[in-house]
Amino acid sequence: MNAPIPDLAEAVAAQAAQIPGMYGRVDFSCTPERFTVAPGDRTDLAPEFLTRRPDLLANEEQVARIKAYTMMGDQVADAYAALMPTCGVRRLITMLEEACDRGVASVPAAPPELVRFIAEMERLPSWLDMKLIEQGARVERNAYAHRAPFVIRGGLLATFMNKYSALPMALTGALSNEAAARRVKETATFFTTTVMPGALERHGAGFKAAAMVRFMHSMVRFNILRRGDHWDVKTYGIPIPQVDQMPAGMISIFLLAQNALRHGRTTFTPAERARAELARYRCFLLGLPQALLADTPQGIVDIMLTRHATLRKGFAPICSALVHATMAADLVSGRSLPSRVHAWLEHGFSKMYFVSNFMRGNRQAAAEVGVRLGFFDYLGAAAAYVLIAFRMTVYATAARIPVLSRAADRSLVRKLSRQLADYGHAEFTTSADTCRPAHA
After folding, report:
1. Can you tell me the mean pLDDT for 30-44?
2. DSSP symbol at 211
């Protein structure tokens, strides 16, 4: 059940008293520049949805909820990250890893902030069906093994298209090619890990990865906000608020929901429902509140569009720099012929994916933000498309044949394990020294 708006507003304001080291100097009574409901303002709402903006804004309760979560961090993870000055980052990471692996009781003198952090992640929502989660993961493994490696870069680019939500990433030093490559690989590692068998169980690798991602986000908030005047809350709101985690966590089910509505369906098919529940629980483990995790196609579309309809449009040089660094990032470790061919295919396909899905096919607009498609990009994208379609079709067909389905799934798990090894170990951390001052 969603909290009443007055209670939610109180919870937002209470962050200053609960975690003064992080939020003590934040004025939670202000409405940041990034949030807008003015009829004439340009927002992140895609052109094909512009006519829906008045209706979206007419839902005052939903708009108020999005506004509140624009100023809401992650209470339990933030409180734990706020221990950095006294405990040190390395010790906090070690304790968190131990708590995820063996339980919080195994951590000597575990701070109460860690106890609350783990307890919140261990709390099972009433709607959770782990059998459905495992079914969703099994359905998703085909796409993650064959399509995800080619689209992860292009999908990540979409998160850099708005200066209000992208700035925290720039402040963590993600402008270098090396840092950008690490960011892409860590993102791929997290999502790939969550579709492995049993990954989202209490002691699964996905559960641990979600905890580490939450801690990383909280470290970024702490490192930025503790410097007071170096972050303009009146312009940008809270660094990495809850609403800015929606696009990455819910894009897959947003597309599912759109597809269902286009076909005149108000409910998901069984396979779609399994995929949707996997994404919702993954988001839950990442700290997203129940109020942002709609469970119907129309609800999912409406909450996402309301977020976009209230986020002021803004593209700045920092966005171009992030796009450039991400596109230039070298994601291939080896220099063998197969590695170079894969790099060519991935680069072309990721560009095409970005232009098609996030720039609505507008190549000129894509070029203006730093993504240019050339002849060899088109060729690589076409070859990658054929390869992806062939592989996914083979495994999808095998999954429908009882005598082959188990063998096909085991093959996918092996493929994904090799991919995770190629991505390397994900730290999911950031250094206090990497957060640089920022003014509006």
Report:
1. 95
2. H
